[in-house]
Write a structure and sequence with these properties.
Length: 147
């Protein structure tokens, strides 16, 4: 079983995603490593990483990583686990949606909570983060609101 979720400086504000990452980590050998977190849409409709402000290539305009979509998704790697182990643990031990657990050619696995209101990031959490980190990528964009 993993000892911790390694965030690598990736911003993952949604407490429901974080809680389910811990459950996933506890069910797998080795640590869960976050490779992609929250995202926002800039004024030019580019999808950008909330962690570093960089454009995320080929990102969907309806990605569940987006604050507007509830920041319900995260990309991970689990070096000590097989794809089958990751998928089974996500399905059986977490609230991550099985149809949205997907392995990508670059090696990362995308997991996402279902598109229900109960799993969306609470607006107050994001507002408080931006209040404490006003220079953080995504905090000044007028199109990145949570709802």
């Amino acid at each position: 079983m993993g000892l911790e979720v390694i965030y690598n400086g990736m911003i993952v504000l949604n407490p429901y995603v974080r809680e389910n990452l811990i459950k996933l980590d506890n069910a797998l050998p080795g640590d869960v490593v976050v490779t992609g977190g929250d995202r926002y849409r800039d004024a030019d409709r580019n999808i950008r990483s909330a962690s570093n402000g960089r454009i995320v290539p080929n990102a969907s305009q309806t990605s569940p990583h987006l604050y507007r979509r509830g920041a319900r998704a995260v990309d991970i790697a689990v070096p000590d686990a097989t794809d089958r182990q990751i998928r089974a643990a996500a399905k059986d031990k977490t609230s991550f949606s099985d149809p949205n657990t997907k392995k990508y050619p670059d090696g990362h696995t995308h997991v996402s909570l279902p598109p229900y209101t109960q799993y969306k990031i609470p607006k107050k959490i994001r507002d408080e983060f931006c209040k404490q980190n006003p220079g953080s990528p995504g905090c000044s964009s007028p199109t990145n609101n949570c709802h």
